[in-house]
Every structure is written in structure tokens, then in C-alpha cells.
């Protein structure tokens, strides 16, 4: 599974941005978004189940970010609202088999996209 993440860019604090993750066959996997700021570890942001019946968020983004998916188009989106400078990071989408691993752990994911940079200026 080759994931392609896109949609990053430079925005101002308070703006919105939508990231997209696409891959053939993505509909069978749970898909998560992680982010990595310079000099920091890669951190969990959000995850959505294969059927979109469940979604979980990191506390730092809860209420501001929304994850969704389109299983016909094999895409997963991350709508990011009310962006803050602390949201600046490279964002990665990742896929894992349903029921395997712990959703917020990096090591639970089998496939990773290349990352897309989000920069939020103050």
C-alpha cells in the first residue's frame, strides 16, 4: 500500500487547512494521522476505522481537527481548523489492519505516506 499525503502549506494562526491521504485499497485499513515537529518525536493526531464508524483524536487537536474518509475514492481527509503555531509539523498518514496494535502508537502502523509540511505562522 503506497500512501500519498498532500495538502500541506503555510497558513496563519486561526486559519483552516485540509490534508488528504490517498492509496489504492485504502478502504480496508484503519488510517491514522501523525505529526512530527522539528526535534520531536512523531505523535498521534487522529485515526479513523476502516468503516468510519469510529474516530479518535489526540487531546491537543480535539474539537479543532476532524478526520473523515471516502471509501469509494480511497481517501482519508484531515480537516484542521483554528490552527495554532504549535500545530506546525510534518504530517504523515499511515495505515494499519483493523484490530491490530494500539491506534495511537507509531509502531502499530504498517504503511506510511511521505509526509506533508504544515506551517502555522503567528
Topology:
Elements: E1 4-6, E2 9-12, E3 17-22, E4 29-36, E5 42-48, E6 55-57, E7 65-70, E8 75-80, E9 89-97, E10 111-112, E11 116-121
Parallel strand pairs: 2-11
Antiparallel strand pairs: 1-3, 3-8, 4-5, 4-9, 5-6, 7-8, 9-10, 9-11
Write up what this structure looks like.
- By secondary structure, this protein is mostly beta strands.
- 0% of the residues lie in helices and 49% in strands.
- The protein has no helices and 11 strands.
- Strands 2, 4, 5, 6, 9, 10 and 11 form a 7-stranded mixed beta sheet that branches. It has a 4-stranded antiparallel beta sheet with strand order 1-3-8-7, with no helix packed on it.
- A hairpin with a 6-residue loop joins strand 5 and strand 6.
- 34% of the residues are buried.
- The model has no long low-confidence stretch (mean pLDDT 96).
Task: Summarize the entry for a quick read.
This protein has strands spanning 4-6, 9-12, 17-22, 29-36, 42-48, 55-57, 65-70, 75-80, 89-97, 111-112, 116-121. The protein has 122 residues and is mainly beta.
Largest sheet: 7 strands, mixed
Q: Which band does the percent of strand residues land in? A: over 45%
Query: What is the strand tally?
Result: 11
Distance between the termini: 37 Å
Morphology call: globular
Encode the helix/strand succession as letters: EEEEEEEEEEE
Stretches where pLDDT is under 50 for at least 5 consecutive residues are: none
What does the average pLDDT come to? 96
Structural class, from helix and strand content? mainly beta
Radius of gyration: 13 Å
Estimated helix fraction = under 10%
Number of helices: 0
* Oligomer class: single chain
Amino acid at each position: 500500500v503506497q500512501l500519498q499525503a498532500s495538502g500541506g502549506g503555510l497558513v496563519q494562526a486561526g486559519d483552516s487547512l485540509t490534508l488528504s491521504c490517498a492509496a489504492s485499497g485504502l478502504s480496508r485499513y484503519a488510517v491514522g494521522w501523525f505529526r512530527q515537529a522539528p526535534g520531536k518525536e512523531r505523535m498521534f493526531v487522529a485515526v479513523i476505522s476502516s468503516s468510519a464508524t469510529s474516530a479518535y483524536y489526540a487531546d491537543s487537536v480535539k474539537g479543532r481537527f476532524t478526520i473523515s474518509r471516502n471509501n469509494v475514492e480511497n481517501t482519508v481527509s484531515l480537516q484542521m481548523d483554528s490552527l495554532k503555531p504549535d500545530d506546525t509539523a510534518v504530517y504523515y498518514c499511515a495505515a494499519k489492519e483493523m484490530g491490530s496494535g494500539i491506534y495511537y502508537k507509531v509502531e502499530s502502523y504498517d504503511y506510511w505516506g511521505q509526509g506533508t509540511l504544515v506551517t502555522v505562522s503567528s
